[in-house]
Amino acid sequence: MMERMxxxxxxxxxxxxxxxxxxKLLTSQEIVVANYPFATxxxxxxxxxxxxxxxxxxxxxxxxxxxxPAVVEFYDIAGLVKGANKGEGLGNQFLSHIRECAxxxxxxxxxxSSEIIHVEGAPxxxxxxxxxxxxxxLKDLDTVxxxxxxxxxxxxxxxxxxxxxxxxxxxxxxEIDRGIPLFASPNYSNVLKNxxxxxxxxxxxxxxxxxxxxxxxxxxxxxxKEKIRNMNAYHxxxxxxxxxxxxxxxxxxxxxxDLMSFLTTGEDETRAWTVKNGTKAPQAAGVIHTDFEKKFIxxxxxxxxxxxxxxxxxxxxxKGWIRLEGKEYVVRDGDVMVIRHG
Length: 342
Fold this sequence. Notes:
By secondary structure, the chain is an alpha/beta fold. It has two domains: 7-139 and 202-256, Rossmann fold; 278-341, Beta-grasp domain (Ubiquitin-like (UB roll)). Helices cover 38% and strands 21% of the residues. The protein has helices at 19-27, 53-62, 91-95, 125-155, 160-177, 188-198, 222-230, 246-256, 281-288, 290-294, 304-310, 313-318, and strands at 7-12, 44-49, 66-68, 71-76, 103-109, 208-214, 234-238, 259-265, 269-276, 296-303, 323-325, 335-341. The longest helix has 31 residues, at 125-155. The two termini are 17 Å apart. Residues 29-42 have low confidence and may be disordered.
């Protein structure tokens, strides 16, 4: 049974790389942005609507009383420094806040400025990425070893499920011991299999990583881009001092997490619902309401462009453009759906 998907993204990076500036752009909230480390004392959570022309168009078509776009939660974490995993700076207590996030955005400073201090003396994007990855890895190692200690005791009972968890944790620890973030591991598919056995323990380096390179294109070296590609990660170049990176960043998050949105529309509201690509109609219906999945009969479906072209649901039905789809139908991005249920 599916719950309504909550897309949450953690923002990490060294102090003074642009994290709080990004958060301010994302949420338009007045938060602390200061030129010294640890200005962000509490994790800031911002709920950002996903820009979506389809919601606007359908709300106008249906004369909806309200519009409910999909949203992304961004967690702004205090600046990490070397030793954050051991509690240096304020990093340790904040790393726990991103355990539940679906993805992590690492903000990397690529621009140089004598006016903005750098905690390591001067910007070096490749070094800075290594520092953050090391801190996240060490936190993961701590998480796995704590869990493994318990699993070793449980496995002494000889029960197959306990032995399987212990063995999976050992394999994950071996991967971490290689010093490569789990998302960059050549054995990533095996890592995911083992996480499936263990259950989600919130391993930070197993999450999808997006690198936001703060600067102009001219500040970003090909070597840096290559480093990120070799880690099976993704990057966005944005000058946080000018322009709006929000649509690009959200689009990249949807792309990398393999997400899409379907829509519902009517007089009361027009709403976007986020699901994984490949979701079938009953599971998509379950995102709207759990009963809709259990009692699913069929879905009436039309692409949002065709609905707009028809001028409304009744007109689209007259033209024969509304399709009836059953339990095996795979929902597509931009589908407008009416769920029929028992």
